[in-house]
Amino acid sequence: MNRANDLSNSVIFPKGEKLPEEFSKNFVGQAWLQMLVMPGTEYNCPIGNVTFEPGCRNNWHKHAGGQILLVTGGRGWYQEEGKPAQELHPGDVVKIPANVKHWHGAAKDRWFVHLSVETNVQAGPAEWLEPLADEEYSKLI
Amino acid sequence: MNRANDLSNSVIFPKGEKLPEEFSKNFVGQAWLQMLVMPGTEYNCPIGNVTFEPGCRNNWHKHAGGQILLVTGGRGWYQEEGKPAQELHPGDVVKIPANVKHWHGAAKDRWFVHLSVETNVQAGPAEWLEPLADEEYSKLI
Questions:
Q1: Which pairs from A130-133 meet CB under 8 Å and 24+ separation?
Q2: pLDDT in tens, A113-137
Q3: Taking CA atoms, what residue in A is nearest to B115?
Q4: Which residues, at least 6 apart from B132, have a Cβ–Cβ distance to it below 8 Å?
Q5: Chain A touched by B70 (CB under 8 Å)
Q6: Which site among A130, A136, B23, B102 is 20 to 30 Å from B17 CA-CA?
């Protein structure tokens, strides 16, 4: 990997720590999380900076209140169930409706960084599901 | 200004258009706005990318539901009424509680870019107040 692709220090916002077990069990590969706005505050709007190593992606999941992804670095993928995966680049914004089954993560050979904004938190937590099939991820270039 | 300080194309997210009159009347100097998540959607979480030219700042104002600023570029200031102004740099996160009178904007000689996340939108719109006194802004280096 050339240096231009090395986002191992994240982009703009702090990289934070390796995902805690409660989240990492729902990921393939390593990701890091720095919460910027914590859950349970008066803002009702948890915001985190998520840094994925190359090849890292999360399992299929749903957010009861929806989620916004703001891509700040690298190259990655977002897929909704039943639709083609969308390639993501810095400056892309993904609006994930409530209860839509999806996954997101890095391209095979590229770091990937996005801010995650959880919306309508009063609707409840995320529901984590099965991993993306390896053969589906391996088709993505 | 050297090229490293030239953020006239914004940072990562699109620069968008000059502020519409409804907002620009509450700013000193020129700013640009690209909405990334529109108001009035199911997300209840308007997000905008705001790019301030050097010296541009907004008037004192309050948000009925609070606001989060995520600083992506340049150098700027945030001040709450009755407190010293805080210098802002990329990676800084400002959590503005509901109904706290404040202003934000660029340093005199630097572009400044932040994402703005409006929280608890059901609480109502922002209340715009008087400009920051020029002699107060001119003290900030």
A1: A130/A59, A130/A60, A131/A28, A131/A59, A131/A60, A132/A28, A132/A57, A132/A59, A132/A60, A132/A79, A132/A103
A2: 999 999 999 999 999 999 999 999 9
A3: A70
A4: B28, B57, B59, B60, B79, B103
A5: yes
A6: B102
What gap in Å lies between CA A3 and CA A19, rounded to an integer?
A: 24
- A95 shares contact with chain B (CB less than 8 Å): yes
Structure tokens at B91: 């990676």
In contact, A111 and A5? CB cutoff 8 Å:
yes
pLDDT digits (tens, 9 = 90+) for B91-122: 999 999 999 999 999 999 999 999 999 999 99
Answer whether B70 sits within 8 Å of A97, measured CB to CB: no
DSSP conformational letter for B122: G
Q: Which residues of A23-45 are buried (b: 16+ CB within 10 A; e: fewer)?
A: beebbbeebbbbebbeeeeebbb
How is B22-51 classified by DSSP, letter by letter? HHHTTEES-EEEEEEE-TTSTT---EEEEE
> What residues pair up with B88 in beta bridges, in sequence order?
B76
Please state the pTM of the whole predicted model.
Answer: 0.96
**Cβ contact B95–A37 (<8 Å):** yes
